[in-house]
Amino acid sequence: MVDFRKHWLLWVAFAIFLTFATGLFWMQQRAARVAIGPPQTVQTVNPKAGVHTRLTDEVEEWKIKRTFEMVREMGAPWIVEYFPWAYIESERGRYHWAHADMVVRHARQQGLRIIARLGFVPEWARPKDTTPLYLDEEHFVDFGNFAAKFVERYRGDIEHVILWNEPNLALEWGYAAPDAVKYTQLLRTVYPMIKAVAPEVQVLGGALAPTLAPPGSEFGVNDLFFLQAMYDAGARDYFDILAVHAYGWHFDPDSPPHPEVVNFRRTELLRAIMVENGDGEKPVMITEGGWNDHPRWTRAVRPGERIAYTLRAYEIAQEEWPWLEALCFWVFRFPWDQNSYQDYFTFVRTDFEPKPIYREVQQYLRAFAP
Amino acid sequence: MQRGRILFVVAGVVLALALGGVWLNQGVQEALLFSFWRSDGTWEAIQQRGAWRVGLDPSFPPFEMLDASGAPIGYDVELAHALAASWGVRADIVAVGFDSLPDALKAGKIDSIVSAYPYDERLTQDFLFSTPYFDAGLRIAVHNRSTINELSDLSGTRVGVEWGGLGDMVGRRLQRDGLELTLHPFETPEEMIAALVEAHSVEAILIDNVMLRKAQAAGLPLRAVNAPLESIPYVIVMPRRAYELQRQLENSLHQFKTDGKLDELERRWFADHATEDVAP
Question: Residues A213-221: what's their mean pLDDT?
């Protein structure tokens, strides 16, 4: 027989612990209760329109759902979303799909087409004291295994994956020297692994940062040179679509392309390199891009210009570039304010209040929609 | 025996609470000569160096910019020099890109950020902040002769906004909330101001406080009404443990507010002539 009086302190502590644990469990269950809702379709006049949603660090499910609802209501059928390898396979061979499942489930329910960006290396797949953007060749197969698992899991829901991001920048290549041959080797390794499990999935390569970095720069390699170097290294057979980043900086979208200028139509120069290399049948997708209306950033434009340029860019995509399949602007919303120029790329604020650009794009994309 | 244990525990709890209270209360620490608990390496380094290293991004007139010779000038630059002088040291201005300012502060490359830096509650675990010295938020501005004096007076009026800007967003929000105003979008803030004071095609405008103060300094007959519709307070940022620097800063800022130094800085740097020598 337990002597309650003798151990009363333990019993009180146990009761407090039990209450606390029950409360936590209850809160968790409440948080998880977000109705998926009926399946939706996107009403739009421009089937190429898209945005980068960046929900990687969005924790609350209702916010993930709300983001996709608002993208659909804006009239954009495409989204680009980042699925960091390190978040999903933080331990080798053990996969944590809960957040990715949630994102994919809600996006598909809203009728959106997902372009999945894959990257971000877990600690176990890179040397100590390297950044999560560092990947050496001996771990290319590990990345391929992850990519294959990913496309297999989301077969039927995700038809496009981007392999890596801006490999022509040292920052995005773990501060190693950007190397088109090494990146091509990455494509050469991962591409067949994806095709082996889901041959219908379209693999996007490139996603190069538009940059005028001079030869020998420690920061990066000019995107035009890098793409040609990829072809020289034999990349042609190891991607299905070229991913392009098309920022306009302070130029309007009709500013003509020039190798010494970063503007929206620089996309046409990348396309010309594809054609020159006998790859003209392959489509292009813009997976990042747009204009910024920060009041002090030197590459920004006025808010009204940003709206006008964005609408015109969607028109160019539809009317002038038959080889372009999607134009996805950076970035729909951040989970929290960045307190930098990045906040001025968004379409809605962190609290989901639509900026005027959201309303104007919605008016354009849903001009004839109910 | 049992009573002795209970007394021991109670005494321990009381002592812990007392020590915690002292740790939290700076005034009590000073009274008890316990301030060594909060030694401020940043302040000590400033004193030893005789210089306060201030980081700013000289690309945001009239707060910080470069003159024709490439020297940093502006409201924040002068504020930094005045603050440093009030502590008997000089201000060394360090040019840092706006987005890199927090990293530079964390890495100890600078002692503070004075760069039209908006308060960021997410950074309070990493940094200390001063009280705001300027609010760049969104204001309702009207002609000096206007009878509009508060937000509700905008009902039934034509209100100018910069197309796509913060004023446009807030104006649309006010309409959604039931305020019956008509929004008139303009391509630039200058066109919007002209519509108010020259063409009289709108009765009020929604404008950020920096643009408003510039227009007022240029002599245009504008006045702000109502509290800011969106507040964007500019603050000075310091390292997390720079308690003494923060205390000194607060004292000096309070003094500057009282003796009119901040008003003088505003008059000086929002007047047109102050930017005549600024590099393009």
Answer: 92
